[in-house]
Amino acid sequence: MPINKRNVLRYTAWTVLTLLVLGIAGAVYAYTQRERLLTIAIERAVKKAKRDYDLTVHIGSATFTGFSSLSVTDVSVVPVNRDSLARVDHIQVGVRLWPLLVGTVALSELSVENGFLQVVKRDSLTNLDTILKRKKDSTAVSKPRTRTDLADVAENLINNLLTKIPDDLNVRNFDFRVIDDEKQLNLLASEARIDNGDVTSTFLLNQNEAIWHITGTASPSDKEYDVNLYAVGKPLEIKYLEQRFKLKAQADTVHAELRDVDRSGGEFRLEGAGSIRNLRLNHPALSPNDVLVRRAAVDANLFVGENYVGVDSSSTLYLGEVAAHPFLKYTLPDTEAGTGKVVEAQLHTDDLDAQALFNSFPQGLFASLDGMKVKGKLRYDLIFKFDTALPDSVKFDSGLTPDGFAITQMGRTDFRRINQPFIYTPYEKDKPVRDILVGAENPDFTPLNYIAPDLKNAVLTSEDYNFFTHKGFNEKAFRVSIATNYKAGSFKRGASTLSMQLVKNVFLNRNKTLSRKVEEILIVWLMENERLVSKERMFEVYLNIIEWGKNIYGISEAARYYFDKTPAELNLGESIFLAFVIPSPKKALNHFQPDGSLQVRNVRGYFKIIGRIMAKRGLTQPDSGAYGFYDVRLRESLRQQVMPQDYYESDSLNTDQTDEGGGMDDLFDRLLNGKPDDDQKPAAQQPVEEAPAVRPTRPTDEPVVTDTVKTRKQLRQERREQKRREKEEKKRQEQETDGR
User: Compositional bias of type Basic and acidic residues: which residue ranges (predicted)?
Assistant: First the structure.
């Protein structure tokens, strides 16, 4: 060996030996001084808790009981002017030495006896407020904010959490509590153990309400877990959820598995799985009935990057007998790139056995499909991308592709029944109004060929201009709806086609639930793709059952009520007006003046827009005026019911607030405890309604006509007289309804 190389090796060996000796000396010194160092560390921690979080931390005693184990007694944590956060009589802690050498505190053992951890909410205050709202140091020098790497945050959070789970765990009589004013949840860990990788535990829910067990395997040093949660003699259930959120949730078993945690290529990745059996749900916003999911599972591969989080497409969702592959990604805004928050979602399936898919629907979710038999295969694909900085560029494509699909047996509801005469019963506030025979035996039933072309064209232009070419859904309308609702900050525009409106009215109840909306979509797909009902018959039934005013159903009643005409006699202006009132039919009379003519404000502009669209498509002649606006005259006997003009309130064009608009807002409020309805906001906070593509807005392009002749006293008298007439009309209608 050359002399120079031998010298290098000699010097290296002496350097390593010197560092080793110094390390051992330092370790020996630290060991001899560990009690004093422990006291200093505890004092610093107590002061920091008080300074930064307003927490009073008390520790009775803390002593070393072995080379790397520590015994602590009489520990309490109390926020200032709040209920106690935690208390423990005795804690025994052991740390692993090798991770400690690189600055990571990893527990090798943990024993906890007699204590509690509680979250207390009284009115709007909780005992976590001081922790969640950390004090700011007024003397600290402010530094320019830099974007936090989400991958680093996730890695630190998961690693800190997992390293605090010891290889050997022994917990006895430790109580987890949630106190929310008068509501309370107690989960007492009478015993929880990890012993040689085996997990066993017993939890008492609300004293003797239920006994829960967690069993399985755990390898904290390898970050691998496989555990099951189940109850003894009854399903898992937390009454607090029902008391607090009106959510009744039960399950037989819950399984969770963590397989791998890794950092690679700037991304933090976590691989795991979970499943649940016999999940029972009941919530007024979900379904009026109990919903039962026999089996649901997921193999999830999560990823976190510098500014994004998501679920990889290699993940798999399982529901009953079928599987799907999801992809989710949420990206933080980037001002330099000009992007806002970006949400991406995809869901794809392989070719699924159609009957297996129908068998996998949760019980109680789609009542009308119960018992349906089908054959063939189905494949579903969904692609969605939304950038909050460019809401109008939203991407939404969704489709269910059949392959040899056919219905071999109808379920609880035969959707072909509307091909024959049938009874339609409209509901008002969950009460039936009256039975309407949809068929030739009803003198008010009008066949499609006997309805004025202008009326048919105006309704299609306003409501669903692609009705005769699409297969039940208008994806462009969905995209416009998403963008409009985001910009408005609330649910202002729906995307229902005529097919969806028909199915909603004929086959489904008026419950504003998620299940009803999904069921509506499924029925429309079945009707349109299997051609169960012709487009002409669907449009004919639609025009003969929809509401056009207070207790006015069908085009024959509407034409006679407003204009004393038959549907065949309606002119262009009358047709556009009837299309105009479909979203809010009960407010139809508000748009007239006492002389029977239409108000200019918010109405004439609509006539121009609809008329121009119709003319552009060759459905009517171009008109430099207002496409029949000035030809509309309310029948004379109705004019006495017209309110003075200052009573007028503009209604929402985009949706019927009894269902699509206010109803969906109410649905999400009930699901998520969201913000109040728009009609509860001050007028100045009302969002500006965007102009939709399918159903034009009613622009206020005309000056407001004010009454400069009548005195205030006369106006007040007219208001009182109008209210009196409204009460009398309402009483009369109620008497007529009771008489039927």
Answer: 715-740
Rounded to 10 degrees, the C-alpha dihedral 565/568/571/574 comes to: 60
Q: Spell 625-655 as b/e; 16+ CB within 10 A means b.
A: ebbbbeebbbeeebbeebbbbeebeebbbbb
- Count Cα atoms within 13 angstroms, Cβ side, for 667: 21
Would you state the structure tokens that stand for residue 686, as one six-digit string? Answer: 């009302």
Nearest to 115 by CA among 173, 42, 179, 199: 173
Mean pLDDT of 278-307: 93
Q: Torsion angle of alpha carbons 230, 235, 238, 239, nearest 10°?
A: -160
Provide the token pair at 228.
């099951």
Query: Are the C-beta atoms of residues 462 and 454 closer than 8 Å to each other?
Result: no
Q: How is residue 430 written in tokens?
A: 């969950």
> How far apart are the C-alpha atoms of 530 and 416, rounded to whole Å?
10
Q: Rounded to 5 degrees, what are φ and ψ at 572?
A: -60, -50
Say if residues 327 and 345 touch (Cβ distance below 8 Å): yes
Q: d(Cα 493, Cα 484) in Å, to the nearest integer?
A: 7
- β 107-122/168-180 pair status: parallel
DSSP secondary structure letter of residue 592: B
DSSP 643: P
Question: What one-character DSSP code corresponds to residue 106?
Answer: -
The three-point CA angle 676-681-686 to 5° equals 110
Tell whether the torsion through CA atoms of 126, 131, 134 and 135 is positive or negative.
Answer: positive
- Within 8 A by CB and 6+ apart from 563, the residues are 570, 574, 633, 634, 635
**H or E segment at 120?**
strand 107-122
Mean pLDDT, rounded, for 252-262: 94
What phi and psi values does residue 34 have, to the nearest 5 degrees?
Answer: -65, -35
Q: Which residue, among 366, 165, 155, has the nearest Cα to 264 in the 3D structure?
A: 155
Q: Which of 735, 458, 507, 487 is nearest to 611 (CA)?
A: 458
Q: How far apart are CA 262 and CA 246, in angstroms?
A: 39
- Neighbouring-strand partners of residue 328: 311, 345
Q: Strand 291-304 to strand 308-311: parallel, antiparallel, or no bridges (unpaired)?
A: antiparallel
pTM value is 0.77
Please give, one letter per residue, the 3-state secondary structure of 10-44. Answer: HHHHHHHHHHHHHHHHHHHHHHHCHHHHHHHHHHH
Residue 79 CB contacts under 8 Å (≥ 6 apart), including other chains? 53, 54, 55, 56, 85, 127, 128, 129, 130, 131
Count the neighbouring beta carbons within 10 Å of the beta carbon of residue 18.
Answer: 10
The four Cα atoms 472, 475, 481, 484 give a dihedral, to 10 degrees, of -160
Mean pLDDT of 393-421: 94
Measuring CA to CA, which residue among 122, 505, 202, 150 is closest to residue 330?
150
Question: Which residue is it, tokens 């004929």?
Answer: 506
C-alpha–C-alpha distance, residues 629 and 376, integer Å: 52
Cα distances (angstroms) measured from residue 191 to each of 16, 212, 214, 323: 48, 11, 10, 38
Q: Which amino acid is at 420?
A: Q
3-state secondary structure of 127: coil
Cα distance from N-terminal residue to C-terminal residue, the chain? 114
Q: State both tokens at 625.
A: 């005026």
Q: Distances in Å between the alpha carbon of 48 and those of 23, 38, 78? A: 30, 15, 14
State the DSSP code for 589: G
User: What gap in Å lies between CA 360 and CA 348, rounded to an integer?
Assistant: 16
Instruction: Provide the token pair at 19.
Output: 């560092």
**For residue 598, what is the DSSP state?**
B
Question: CB count, 10 Å around CB of 286?
Answer: 20
Work out the pLDDT band at 142, boundaries 50, 70, 90. Answer: low
User: Could you tell me if 73 and 60 are in contact, meaning their C-beta atoms sit under 8 angstroms apart?
Assistant: yes
pLDDT, tens digit (0-9, with 9 covering 90-100), for 542-570: 999 999 999 999 999 999 999 999 999 99
